[in-house]
């Protein structure tokens, strides 16, 4: 039976269906201006965040820079049917509420739309209402940072809940911290692979972010790192794959194609680094194995949408 979540989502999709791209851009600009006039403090913080990380596009209305607005409008108009498809594939109302509020925020920013979504109960990537692990678990952590997610895995499921953990990380400084944390926390059977994960094996450049948690692979960059396809690098069966690689999730997912087809691993993927990842990664998984069930969870900031995770189970 339809509910308010369904109504809100369908109303937004219906409105967008009646607008062309230029009309949607104009509407997003009006909504941003309304946010500025009614909540200037949070508006300013939001704009500064977007311009700092530049993942979704920059914005500077005083100098007629509306790249962010253009990207949002194109995502909403060009991929409205993809978002409708994803909404229909989500398996609980919590996930549907998250998707509806995220898209509504893109169209008309208001921090209340995301602050009510926050999950403060479970560790990110490890929603115990969704994820169950056994002693033979083989967990692949793509974008391992300093080993914090591997540590959270053990905190959540216990030291006897896995067979092996593989950590893939592109930043050498972070790789060193992974070794230190493995020793400090006495983590057993955790392998620091000291390379990145992508769609194929080779040498890639990467661009360092303001912090080492936001470095990303690039066609050009000042530093080089070996990368591998997970299908080529791990011989044993894989049961659980997590990804947070600053916008390179699509390439990393392509490198897991064989594992997905043969092992049907649980997947927990960051889908907030671009406007397309939210629907495109789900489409890619569904094309490989339509038996996957999809969920969304939100672990991000209260101010604007970040850290939303697609679970495919």
From TrEMBL:
Record's protein name: FkbM family methyltransferase
Keyword Transcription annotated: no
Signal peptide residue numbers: none
Gene3D superfamilies: Vaccinia Virus protein VP39 (3.40.50.150)
Any matching Pfam family: Methyltransf_21
Family annotation (SUPFAM superfamilies): S-adenosyl-L-methionine-dependent methyltransferases (SSF53335)
Record key words, sorted: Methyltransferase, Transferase
The UniProt record lists the keyword Transferase: yes
Domain (Methyltransferase FkbM): residue spans on this chain: 141-298
Highest taxon of the lineage: Bacteria
UniProt record, GO biological process: methylation
